[in-house]
Amino acid sequence: MNTVRVGSRSIGEDQPCFIVAEIGINHNGDIDLAKRLISVAVAAGCDAVKFQKRTVEVVYSPEELAKPRENPFGATNGDLKYGLEFERDDYEEIDTFCKSVKMCWFASPWDEGSVDFLEEFSVPVYKIASASLTDDKLLRYIRKTSKPIIISTGMSTYAEIDHAVEVLGKQDLILMHTTSTYPASYDELNLRAIPTMAKRYGIPVGYSGHETGIPTSVCAAAIGACCVERHITMDRAMWGSDQAASLEPNGISRLVRDIRLWEMSKGDGIKRVYEREVPIIKKLRRVGAAV
Q1: Does residue 3 sit within a domain?
Q2: Which pTM was predicted?
């Protein structure tokens, strides 16, 4: 299985798990909140933070934007979508802040214009959302950037994933197993799909979790996920559609800690007697016992 280079990190077999804090739209349109969430990811020891980028009038139809929907920004769905969308000044501030705290950032572009926008910031990798897996035009457009690609596979059949992999090619590609319910029920997680997909495609496979807890995301790393992504929030009770499926600061810190403990503990699989065991042997084994 090959590895994929993202910035200064290699992602894949025998590499440390690449842990992504998904900020997405949990910033609620507030750049200061976005920077606080970046700081949470830094403190937790995450490898990267991720946002979402849309050209609202391209991704959504006029009819969809006009639908009534009470929200902090107005009374329509359009008010909400525009209110949650960061623009150039915001991303310039994000880019500057991430560089100052040495945090890698990237985003999921939902349309071609958003790819062009993100190219101006020289993001090291593109994330394709599950909803875009069947958008061949967008997949081909992102592949033309020659950047590594991470693609989530929620809501997708093997036939659809096979086609997306065919469109993108396997070079510098990471698949993410995920279940697109927010929050996801534990009986929907199907973590054993991770090694199954790795065997089927022969490329690195990670996990994007939308469950409320931590242990299952650690389990994903333990059974082979090369990358683990979780949404983060300052408070799961905050307003917003993704907040309830996110981890608060203590939660993301525990996730990183526990994955790193697993990596430290897994060893190389060769049974040995450690030097620190030798005095215990002398203390506890019966004198003259046959070996």
Answers
A1: no
A2: 0.95
